[in-house]
């Protein structure tokens, strides 16, 4: 009896010992798996951190290089620069402008370059092997600043309409750009380009709610945009939405520029991604105009003092009447004062910027008269 009880205890103890060992073994494997997973996650995280750091470093370097390139291109007035960026072909360059601040860099990366001075007109995104930079001076009526246009070899521009001869001017001015003249929207074929921009110079081919050209229907909406000009020097912006055009600006955007010069403001409207980018960069130009007016006011005072102190220089001339208010109807001081008052209002309320045109025309004519009719020193 005692022996049987002892055998039972031994068998129970053996079974208990086996179960305990199995439990310990199971926990050991769970521990090993958890530890392995933690170690694996650590190294995966380390790789991603290194990759992110490398991309962050690349983004920083790219931004610095782009900033230097843009600065150099702006110094080279009226020149075009074709920049090989094949090493960045897998990256998308991003351009924005808001509240007078331009930012550009690699999409999705931090530390973009910031610029509050130079107007940069470009698509919102560029993914290419060849960047195209073009600088044109903006005058109102004296030179205010150089506009920088940024595009790419795989951004295609389709020119529709004549625009009172502007189509030929634009086509000739953009030699080696990816642009083509088309007689109707049915001819538009995007090919393998990254994005397309339609330029409707007569304001009749692109209308909100109308279908986009058939061959553009398969492209992503943000890769198909259009700019449409009216006869009154106004412009509307459009983007593809499904198979139809959608106007992106609420109100017509006015082109503020004088005749007789290559219309830098009109070219800028073509290269700007949308009305917000266009107006943001134009505001930079108007801010600079404000400061330049103050400089030219001082120069006008010097001219006036020069002729007052040297009356013999005015013999048979009419210099002071072309400078002073109260002289000729179009005079330097009066035009500068009007231009200054309007640009101050324009910076507060953009709808007032159209008022810059008349005093700018008056100043331009007064300066011409000062030199040609008065045979005097000119303001600029």
Q: How many helices?
A: 7
Strand content: 15-25%
In round numbers, the mean pLDDT is: 88
Give the overall shape.
globular
Structural class: alpha/beta
Query: Helix and strand string, N-terminal first?
Result: HEEEEEEEEEHEEEEEEHHHHH
Poorly predicted runs are: 45-49
The N- and C-terminal alpha carbons lie at a distance of 127 Å
Count of extended strands: 15
Computed Rg = 33 Å
Query: Major β-sheet, in short?
Result: 7 strands, mixed
Helix content: 40-55%
Tell me what the structure shows.
The structure is a single chain. With 380 residues, the protein is of the alpha/beta class. It has helices spanning 2-75, 166-173, 264-271, 275-309, 319-323, 332-348, 357-372, and strands at residues 80-84, 93-98, 101-106, 113-115, 120-121, 125-126, 130-139, 143-152, 155-160, 179-182, 195-200, 224-229, 234-241, 244-247, 253-254. Among the domains are: 155-273; 281-372, no CATH class. The strands form three sheets. Strands 9, 10, 11, 12, 13, 14 and 15 form a seven-stranded mixed β-sheet that branches. Strands 1-7-8-5 form a four-stranded mixed β-sheet. A four-stranded antiparallel β-sheet has the order 4-3-2-6. Helix 4 (275-309) runs antiparallel to helix 6 (332-348) and helix 6 runs antiparallel to helix 7 (357-372). The termini are far apart.
């Amino acid at each position: 009896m005692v022996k049987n009880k002892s055998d039972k205890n031994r068998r129970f103890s053996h079974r208990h010992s086996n179960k305990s060992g199995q439990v310990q073994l199971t926990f050991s494997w769970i521990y090993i798996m958890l530890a392995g997973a933690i170690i694996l996650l650590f190294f995966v995280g380390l790789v991603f951190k290194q990759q992110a750091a490398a991309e962050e470093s690349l983004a920083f370097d790219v931004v610095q290089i782009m900033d230097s390139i843009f600065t150099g291109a702006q110094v080279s007035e009226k020149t075009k620069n074709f920049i090989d960026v094949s090493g960045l072909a897998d990256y998308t360059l991003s351009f924005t402008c808001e509240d007078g601040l331009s930012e550009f860099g690699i999409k999705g990366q931090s530390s973009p370059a910031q610029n509050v001075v130079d107007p940069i007109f470009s698509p919102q995104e560029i993914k290419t092997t060849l960047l195209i930079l073009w600088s044109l001076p903006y005058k109102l009526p004296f030179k205010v600043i150089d506009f920088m246009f940024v595009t790419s070899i795989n951004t295609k521009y389709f020119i529709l309409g004549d625009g009172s001869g502007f189509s030929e001017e634009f086509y000739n001015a953009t030699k080696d750009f990816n642009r083509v003249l088309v007689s109707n929207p049915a001819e538009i074929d995007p090919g393998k380009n990254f994005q397309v921009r339609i330029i409707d110079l007569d304001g009749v081919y692109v209308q909100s709610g109308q279908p986009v050209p058939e061959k553009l229907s398969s492209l992503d909406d943000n890769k198909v945009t259009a700019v449409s000009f009216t006869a009154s020097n106004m412009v509307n912006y459009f983007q593809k939405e499904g198979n139809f055009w959608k106007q992106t600006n609420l109100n017509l955007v006015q082109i503020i520029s004088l005749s007789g010069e290559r219309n830098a403001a009109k070219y800028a409207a073509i290269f700007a991604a949308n009305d917000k980018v266009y107006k943001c960069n134009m505001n930079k130009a108007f801010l600079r105009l404000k400061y330049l007016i103050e400089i030219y006011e001082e120069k006008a005072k010097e001219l006036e003092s020069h002729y007052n102190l040297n009356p013999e220089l005015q013999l048979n001339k009419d210099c002071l009447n072309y400078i002073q208010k109260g002289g000729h109807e179009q005079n330097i001081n009066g035009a500068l004062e009007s231009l200054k008052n309007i640009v101050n209002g324009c910076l507060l309320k953009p709808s007032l910027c159209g008022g810059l045109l008349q005093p700018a025309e008056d100043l331009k004519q007064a300066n011409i008269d000062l030199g040609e009719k008065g045979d005097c020193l000119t303001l600029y």
